[in-house]
Amino acid sequence: MKKPDAGQGQPASELISKRIAELGDWRGEALGRMRKLIRQADPDVVEEWKWMGTPVWSHDGILCTGESYRDKIKLTFARGASLKDPARLFNASLDGNVRRAIDIFEGDNVDESAFTALVRQAIALNSSGKSKPPKKTKP
User: Fold this and answer.
1) Res 137: pLDDT
2) Architecture of domain 12-126 in CATH?
3) Whether the predicted model's global pTM rises above the 0.90 cut
4) 97-106 — which CB contacts under 8 Å span 24+ positions?
5) Of 3, 13, 89, 97, whose CB count within 10 A is highest?
C-alpha cells in the first residue's frame, strides 16, 4: 500500500519518526514501541499526519491516533467502543459511543499481545464495513 504524502513535503512516516525522536524521553520510547506493534500487526498499515501534527494509522479507515502530552501518550481508537477489550487496555474516553483510548503514563507496561489483538480487531471492523453490500431499499 502506498503511504500518502503528509502535505508538508515529507512522508508521514518520516514526520512520525521525527516526532518520536523529538520527544526524547519515555514518551518517545512508548510511542515508538506502540507504532512498532501497530506495524507488526498490519504490515500494510498506512501512516498519516493529520490535524496539525497527529500521527494516524489507517487501514480501510482510521485505526487509531497517537498523541503525546506532557504526562502521557494517548492512543485513541476511532471505533474502539465496538472492539472487545478483555484485557481492559482502554482506560480513557470510556463514556463515548464510538471512540476509546489507551492512556500510557511513564512506567506503564502495555500488554503487547492484547494491544496487537485490538489493532487486528480494528482492521477487521474497518474492512468489514468496506465489504458490506449496500442496503436494498424496499419499493
Assistant:
1) 53
2) Alpha-Beta Complex (3.90)
3) no
4) 100/76, 101/74, 101/75, 101/76, 101/77, 102/74, 102/75, 102/77, 103/72, 103/73, 103/74, 104/30, 104/34, 104/72, 104/73, 104/74, 104/75, 105/71, 105/72, 106/26, 106/27, 106/71
5) 89
